[in-house]
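We both want to read discrete structure tokens more fluently, so let's practise on a single case. Would you write everything just below, so we can both look at the same thing?
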Amino acid sequence: MLQIGSTRERRAQRNLSVTLAECESEVLAAQQLRWRVFADELGAQLESPVPGADIDRFDAHCEHLVVRDDDNGRIVGCYRILPPEAARRTGGYYSETEFDLGRLDHLRPRMVEIGRSCIDADYRSNAAVIALLWSGLGRYMQEAGHQYLIGCASVGLADGGHNAAAIFAGLGAHMAPPEYRVFPKLRLPLERLAPTPQAVMPPLVKGYLRAGAQVCGEPAWDPDFNTADLPMLMDLSRLDNRYARHFMQRAA
């Protein structure tokens, strides 16, 4: 396992640290956090071999980046990381269950997939949690020598998909060039949707785009999570300078 060490910060009277999960109990705590957020809060229909824990066939091949509140031992934030060598062992990336990634084949040797990002409800007002997740991810990418990040950024469909359609319609320069386009296996039927007058962009999607990520194609519909999933690609060589200071320099 690649070790990223421990990055610590004191913010909002909390002592937080970020590391890769080092034992099965830490991985399970992250999976239980994912269940509370995705199933209990957001109503996702998840199948899992362990009640109350979000576990699928990719988990055993992933690294699990976790933020811990050192004052009480709680895992309060997490990211799931699938490096290229593990993706080869498991037969591909999670994103390939939703998209044809054929045009990204040449990136695979240096392409890491991230996903299942979530933060405990009690800690979402504390910007340090997401900052630590990003700094830990930056250290991971630096130490492993990878250049590309891929993942699915989700937009809820509680309104029937009209906000997701508005977000996609307004992406403009954030769209990847044709040679990096991917294709949803179950596409969101954008032609049947009326974009809302004012798009409300989820914070994670907004953060990716501000950092310099590109959207590689039309959104896929994920019926289990009831979300429109945007295929994101970030080339660290074109990371926005403002984000690079937090994402890369803090990881050093």
The CA atoms of residues 35 and 41 lie 9 Å apart.
